[in-house]
Amino acid sequence: MSNALFPRHRGLLILALVLALLPLALPNAYYFDVAIRIALNAVVVIGLNLLMGYTGQISLGHAGFYGLGAYASAVLTTHFNWPPLGALAAGAAATGLLAFALARPVLKLKGHTLAMATLGLGIIISIAINNEGQWTGGPDGIAVNAFSVLGLEVAGEKQWYAVAAALLLLVTWLALNLIDSPVGRALQAIHGSEVASRVVGIDTTRFKVRVFVLSAVLASIAGSVSAHYIGFITPGMAGFFHSIELVTMVVVGGMASVFGSILGAALLTLLPQVLSAFEGWEVVVFGAILMATMIFLPRGLVPSLARRAKG
């Protein structure tokens, strides 16, 4: 194994160890709940970071894909009695097909026009979920059946933690292997310069479409699992503010950093809980923390700290 690859695989082993030992330090169900939400958010953020950090394509509508997965599981299991795994797979497939159909025209755009197009996509999905009250429950939301596999129901915080941790570890492993593959190097070349990438023979459109679809599918899977875990979902999970929250997790943790994605998801999931003590001022304190991070650590936490440690 090369020196370049060793730190990443060492990081994966450390993550696995932390995930395995963390339940021993969690005192009650509340802390398990926070840990589960962090893991599921991290799955979405890792996929989004592949798109933004490694390929340089921004998305302000990723919560829409998250919501599609959640509502696919809710509707198919509640109204049509589908098994949860089948509903999750169907939601991921449908989301992937939608992302594939939209990727080519959308990803031809650049900069703020690309951001506006993805924002519009997210808004359309959110409005559709809101208005289709017969199936989705509209603004009131919809209850979601329990998650079961082969008749065995996932119940209790420890079982749900095991599911979320396993999913996070799997997605982290897949992302690290993708980055170290020729595909990952092509994505990073596209981020550096699309023109130069095309000159050396990289099909930039094909690679951008692939990573867009992959990030959408990961968001959908996390949305499905989250829906079964929470047990009740509302259109807000597919809304604009959730998309901004996901993008912020990517930026704060570190662009082009898988472990930065996990740290960003952890920090921004934990901060609202910690800042609840500042009644009426939590949003101000939250904003100040984000501003300070961008001023003093502009590359994000993990890349900036790693660079300072080397220098």
TrEMBL record:
<feature type="transmembrane region" description="Helical">
    <location>
        <begin position="211"/>
        <end position="234"/>
    </location>
</feature>
<keyword id="KW-0812">Transmembrane</keyword>
<keyword id="KW-1133">Transmembrane helix</keyword>
<feature type="transmembrane region" description="Helical">
    <location>
        <begin position="37"/>
        <end position="56"/>
    </location>
</feature>
<dbReference type="GO" id="GO:0015658">
    <property type="term" value="F:branched-chain amino acid transmembrane transporter activity"/>
</dbReference>
<keyword id="KW-1003">Cell membrane</keyword>
<feature type="transmembrane region" description="Helical">
    <location>
        <begin position="160"/>
        <end position="179"/>
    </location>
</feature>
<feature type="transmembrane region" description="Helical">
    <location>
        <begin position="246"/>
        <end position="271"/>
    </location>
</feature>
<feature type="transmembrane region" description="Helical">
    <location>
        <begin position="283"/>
        <end position="302"/>
    </location>
</feature>
<feature type="transmembrane region" description="Helical">
    <location>
        <begin position="88"/>
        <end position="107"/>
    </location>
</feature>
<keyword id="KW-0472">Membrane</keyword>
<dbReference type="Pfam" id="PF02653">
    <property type="entry name" value="BPD_transp_2"/>
</dbReference>
<feature type="transmembrane region" description="Helical">
    <location>
        <begin position="114"/>
        <end position="131"/>
    </location>
</feature>
<dbReference type="GO" id="GO:0005886">
    <property type="term" value="C:plasma membrane"/>
</dbReference>
<protein>
    <submittedName>
        <fullName>Amino acid/amide ABC transporter membrane protein 2, HAAT family</fullName>
    </submittedName>
</protein>
<dbReference type="InterPro" id="IPR043428">
    <property type="entry name" value="LivM-like"/>
</dbReference>
<dbReference type="InterPro" id="IPR001851">
    <property type="entry name" value="ABC_transp_permease"/>
</dbReference>
